[in-house]
Amino acid sequence: MKEQPVLCFVDFTDITDNLKLWAGFVHKKTGRPIDLLFVRDNNTHIVFGSDVDDSTIEKKLDAFRTNAGITSGDNYIKEGCNCTLISSIAESKDAIYTLIPVHKYNDVQFLNGKTVVKMLRKSRIPGLIIPEKNKFTPPQSVSTIANFRRAQKITAPWLVHLSKYLDLKINMFMPANGEQQVKHNFSFLRQFCEDHGITPEPNTSASGIKTDKHLLKQLIGNIHMLHLGPQPGFFDRLFGDNDARLVSNKYGTPVFCVNSRDDLLVPCT
Q1: pTM of the model
Q2: Domains plus CATH for the chain?
Q3: Most exposed of 151, 156, 164, 266 (fewest Cβ within 10 Å)?
Q4: Phi and psi for 137 in degrees, rounded to 5?
Q5: How far apart are CA 109 and CA 106, in angstroms?
Q6: Hey, which residues does 177 pair with through a beta bridge?
Q7: What distance in Å separates the CA atoms of residue 208 and residue 107, rounded to the nearest whole number?
């Protein structure tokens, strides 16, 4: 059986060197092929300073692969919409997840957090999102904070998967004054991890931590598991999409986004 790859989006802007370290880390830890995708669009001539042919871009992708220590995977050079192509290629290759660097929340030039979250809410394939402010250090943990949504339970297999294959401990947080459903989710996630041979580090008295936003500052250098909310409501449309702001967070904390879908890709644990 062919191993599912990780699809990595590369835009060759100034965040690419940091992305290279993440791609190399994921490949070294998991042994999975890393597929690289570059999308030709209106920014291509800005990035390269002039029009370039596909052979030049192919050489850049090969150099990225070599410098990252990636020994397997395919290169893709496509023209069109970033998000459409990320989704379609991830589906066609049955990618285990995507690895996507994002620029500022509402960057008008390059792929931003707002656009990526819109894409992920339509996708059955999760994404590891690397904010512009991130400075790579090998992560030591993956963290989650219980919320009130029953569907948060779908993140449990992914917590175990990342812990096992990226060699991360699991930190679990109970928000201050958690409601009964929040406590139930916390207990379920903890029990699921324990059933798969992993003992998470629970924090049930996280003073001042009520939401994912409060937690991100404490996680610099590690990965945060985000259960994406449904389509943005009235206040999100008025003040900005909260999930999109989280993936573009100013602390540079990487965010692993899992969507609520009946056909969500569930990894082997």
Answers
A1: 0.91
A2: 6-131 (3.40.50.620), 141-258 (3.40.50.620)
A3: 266
A4: -135, 145
A5: 9
A6: none
A7: 30
